[in-house]
Amino acid sequence: MCRHGSNRVERHQSLCLLCDKHGVEDEYHFVLICPIYLQFRKRFIMSHFFKRPSVHKFIEWMQSPNKHTLIHLGKYLYEAFALRKSLVN
């Protein structure tokens, strides 16, 4: 995911290297779609958001005012990024 900064890659060229979905590895894919992170999704995200994912649900979750929800988001991101780093390197 290097779509920002000086080493920017165009959106259509940043495909997920870890799954067979052949999708763009954007925030939506990373958090709700990529099967590599399913174990963390089940652990940290309410099933409402990932069982039938949509951009609307993704935005709803990201904008949640609920402290508990945001703590779980942080835990998900920490674990998922650690796994991604270990698999990509």
Q: How many strands in all?
A: 0
Described by strand count, sense and barrel closure, the largest sheet is: none
What general form does the structure show? globular
Overall pLDDT: 87
Helix content: 40-55%
Strand/helix succession:
HHHHH
Oligomer: single chain
- The first-to-last residue Cα distance is 13 Å
Please state the CA-atom Rg, rounded to the nearest Å: 13 Å
What share of the residues does DSSP label as strand, in percent? under 5%
Ranges where pLDDT stays below 50 over 5 or more residues in a row are: none
**Individual helix count:** 5
Q: Which structural category fits the helices and strands? A: mainly alpha
Verbal overview:
The model has no long low-confidence stretch (mean pLDDT 87). 54% of the residues lie in helices and 0% in strands. The radius of gyration is 13 Å and the shape is globular. α2 runs antiparallel to α5 (67-88). With 89 residues, the protein is mostly helical.
Attribute tags:
mainly alpha, 0% strand, globular
Outline the fold blueprint.
Layout (H helix, E strand, L loop, with lengths): L26 H7 L4 H7 L2 H4 L4 H8 L4 H22 L1
Helix pairs in contact: 2-5
